[in-house]
Amino acid sequence: MIKFYIDPGTGALLVNLIIAIGTSIIFYFRSLFFWLFNISNSKVNKVNPKISLFSEGEKYWTTFKPIINSFIKNKIHFNYYTMSFKDPALLIENDFIKSKYIGNGYLGFYRFSKIKSDALITTTPNIGNKDFPLKKPSLVKDLIHVYHSIIALPHYKIGALDNYDSVIVGGDFQIKSIRDLEKLRGLKEKNIYKLGIPYLDELNMNKKNLTSNKKTILIASSWGNKGCFKTYGTSFIDKLLSENFNVIIRPHPHSYIHEAEFINRIKKKFSANNNVIWDEKNSPSSSMNKSNILISDSSSIRFDFSFIYQKPVITLKIESPKMIGFENQFIESSWEEESERILGPVIDKSKIYNLNEIINETLLSFDPGKLKKFRKVSFYNFSNSGNLISNFFSKKYE
Fold this sequence. Notes:
The protein is of the alpha/beta class.
């Protein structure tokens, strides 16, 4: 007779694994049921909310979570539509939220086009554009864009916000690029709501300063041609490792979709090095908490990291001609150019092989006081945007 022995630690791990799998299965079939029958998870369906939120899925949870929490806290009824059955909002059991999984693909696109609401807040750009599958819902009176990153319109794809009625902005620098494009294309002026950038609320709440005996470098790359790996390669990572830095690599989530083979080659190259960690989580908080300095390109994570943690950023410069198909072909934003130099050094290919020395010098000489002052003059309602959005729309539609 064969006897099997499982030590307590492994046994606990197996139990947790079984529970996790079981929970995922229940979550999946529950969401599938809602999708098939086009119903919501709310116990109370008598109220017809005037305000709705739409999300493509869980990767934008940090943007919607502060808004959702504040709506519920202030007892505001609202709809929440999502295209992912993994969206955490579907698990919320509360009478003030009517959450609905509308599905993905053609049926999801169709259901989105039939949404009826006085106000629909979404972070999805390009809605209503010719080659984009999400058409502007004709029964929505006010289609409102909320930023999910600290960038201006030149970094969006061409026509990304042309079909929106309103935009929730985080600072004056975002207003200028919106108005410039409206004049250029003869568009109707959008309503501008100066309410802030809600995902910063969540990142700020998750802030922790963790220390390590070794310096930890976070490398966060954009995807496509504006990503630093495409322009600078990965040899600079080899040099960082030669100095025994801890290196966390965080590609943009779209990289795993649109350039998976390229990312897998980089993974394979560094797979044997214990000082390299890959971050594939939806939120960058865990990696930012551990890091002493960030290396990035034009990614907006630079501003998240510097403004929340008051730590330095090294920008690997990507020239704008690389960004074909984006609004910067028509308008410019000097804000990014000016602000990136306040965050830390900006270097090009001629200086990339001095990166180790630049990192050490920057960590010794960096002054966080400049960042605090710059943040204060740049943003509305920093780290409290969710509450302001909730209060504004509750009064607007009371």
